[in-house]
Each structure stands twice: as structure tokens, then as C-alpha cells.
Write the C-alpha cells for this entry.
Amino acid sequence: MAQFSAAPGSSAIPPYADGDASGNPAMPAGYSERLYNEDLAPLRHQTWGAYNIFAFWMSDVHSVGGYVFAGSLFALGLTSWQVLIALLVGIGIVNVLCNMIAKPSQANGVPYPVACRATFGVLGANVPAVIRGLIAVAWYGIQTYLASSALVIVVLKFVPQLLPYADVHRHGFMGLSTLGWSGFMLLWVLQALVFWHGMETIKKFIDFAGPAVYVVMFILAGYMVYRAGWRNIGINLGGVKYHGMEVLPVMITATSLVVSYFSGPMLNFGDFSRYGKSFRSVQRGNFWGLPVNFLAFSLVTVITTAATLPVFGQLITDPVETVGRIDYPTAVILGALTFTIATIGINIVANFVSPAFDFSNVAPRLISWRAGGMLAAVASIFITPWNLFNNPAVIHYTLDVLGSFIGPLYGILIVDYYLVKRQKIVLDDLYTVAPTGSYWYRNGVNYRAVAALLPAALIAVLCVMVPSLDGMANFSWFIGAGLGALFYRLLAR
């Protein structure tokens, strides 16, 4: 079998074999049906430029969940400028980590689960794939629920007669009102339609959704400042609890939470960097989409949240609720619909595309990319995400648990690619079950990677679950990533 080794940073992709009569590319000689379908195949043409990556991050950042998360940092007792610094330092770390995880997928044109085959083995890669896929299912449901809440606000604003149907106690099922179910399923179907049309449609959607929400958020921030008066916007929103050097550990905690919040899309960023024209394009897109974009996002969030106190008499961290209190119907419609579009954008890119590849990787012959995504969408209904989200501590708690599993995976993948394999991957061997393949290992599983993952994840989870270790819970991603990297480095020797 011919071997192909992609040089570090290279975007050279081996050609497909001749296509069949329908024009579809045939499976290259030597590839296994257990590991290959058209969706998992290395790309022939990588077309995404820096703007497409930038738009991806705009859609990923500007969601209802993103604003609620940023606003929730005020509850830690930090001032506005301290929250701003924590957000920027955290996103700077995310930028570096995304560039590192992006390289193997961009260089070889393969999605995240296929890239994992080089580390965990061609069959063992299903372990990190399924872990990421299940996490995406939970977040997919939560984000769909948040987007549907924005729609419900618009409906009730103009059709107050439906208010009884928004009461879960009078007209509800499984913890969600009848009106809530209607909004949730409508958003569920709309997202499925966008996803079903493929990655090109998704790219066009996020190219539009990212800038659109920017315009509305700047208008909302300007309106709130106008209503409040600049002099009336305070900086001590959380009720300052710390002074002097006492604030440093709290800011470090907030920074860690930022990294944990982005840990999901960061881990499977290869699903998108594989489309990059060059690694340089991916780096530029990450720079504009993360530090620069997040600076604007942070400023708008801090200003808008701060203005809710003098305007409405209480601190409101949910932008949908803020929009719902505006007296102008047109503004309410525009704002709520924009937040809905933005949340659809992040949901598709972060929580639909990922499980589509992940579940397809488990059984490529039976599960296509579209089928994998729809499996995730259906599963998201049965977990009743509104019950998960309606716990006041669920955002931080979810981030901690999520980071416990994702951190070790990230650490192992980075150490293997940069330190063990020295950025060299034999692309053809990612698709073969032949015992002579570079990534077959024993039974197709690299048990050293699994042995490094399990204790690292267990320790990180204990930091979250054991009350006596709750001081370490907010750092579960870093603990897991560090331990996973250390254990694998020792075992890989």
C-alpha cells in the first residue's frame, strides 16, 4: 500500500482513486470500510480562508449561553474591569491551544475523530470520539432550549393570550410548557434543515450569523447606555467581596472558567481547521476570531450588563431578558430573532457538526455524517435540557464536569502529535486495519493512551464531585490536561 506522510504545516492531500459512475469518489485502495466513508475521507480541496474561521468564532462566541456565562462571572464578586481582564486572558490561552490542536487536522485534511486514530489507534479513536459526541449532545439540547426561549419571549410580547400555555404547571409536559415545547421543536427542525444541506450551507450561515449579532448587540449596548446615562453605569456589579491581592485567585478562577467554556469546540476544532486553505489562514482566523472578537464581545457584555442596573433596577445577565423588557416592539423582535439566529449558529458549529463526525466514525459503513448529526439531535430531546439548565449553578458545574473529560483528551493528543510523533502522520494508515499499519497497535487500540486517559479523567472528576476538593473544581480542565499529558508522556516512552 502506498504511504503518504504529510509534512508539518503542509496542506497536501493525496488524491482519491477514480470515482464511480455517479461521479462520487471511490474508496482508495488499501483503505478499510470499517474506517472510511466520504465524510471522513481526507479533503481534496481546502477552501476556508481566515474570514471563515473568524466567522466561525463569532458564531461560537455570540450566543445566549455565551452572554449568560460572561455575565455570571460577576457573581464571583469581581468588578467589571476585573471580569474583562479575566475574559481576555482566558481567551488568549484558548487562542494558543486552538492553534495547537488545529495543525494535525489542517495538515492532513481530516476531522477530529480521524486525527485521534493516530494517538488512540484506528479503533481506539472511538473512545475520544464518543466522549466528545455525548458532551455535544447535552450542549446541543441546552443551546436549542436557550434559542427557543428567545422566540417564546417574542411570541408572548405580541400574543399575551398565549401566556397560560407558557405556564408549565397548567400546560406542561416533562418540565416544559406547551409553548416552550413548540418553540423548542421549531428551533430543532430549523437547525436540522441547515445541517442537512451540508458544510457549505453551514459555512454560509455562520458567515452571516456572526456579523448580524454584532450589529444588534452594539445597538442594544448603545440603547442601554442612552437609557442609563453614562455616569450612572457602575463597575461594582457583583458586589465587591475582595480587595488588594485577595482578588487574584478569583480572577484566576474566572480565567480557568473561560478556558473550560471553550474546551468543547476547542477539542474538536480540527473538524473545521481541516477546511483551512493553509495553517496560516487558520492562525489569522483564530487571532481575529478569539482575542480581537472576544475583546469586542467582552466590552459589549460588560457595558450592557452594567446598564441593566440603573435602567431596570436589577442586574440582568441574560440578553434575551434585557431585550424582552424594551418598550419598542420592533426592537424586541429584531433582538430576539438575532439571538435566535446566533444561537442556532453556535449550536450547529459546536454541537451538531462534532457528533456528526464522532458518531459516523464509530460505524462509517452504517452511519453517515448526516445520520450521526441526526442521532445527536434526537438524543438531545430525551435528555430534557431545560431541566439541566434551570439549576442556578448548572453553568459552572457543567463546565467543571465537561473539562474533567475533555482536558485529559486534549493533553494526550497534543503530547502525542508534537512530542511523540514530531508532527508526522502517515495519512493512509489512518484508514487501514492492516496489522502493518502505523496506528493499528494491539487490537487496533493504543492502550497506553487509554491508560493515561482513565486516571487523569478520574482525578479531574473527583476534583468536581468531592466536596473537600471543591476549591480545585474550577481548574478541572487544566488538572485533567496536565495529568493526561504527563501520564501519556511517561507511558509513551
Notes: The domain at 45-391 is CATH 1.10.4160.10 (Hydantoin permease). Residues 279-312 form the longest helix (34 residues).
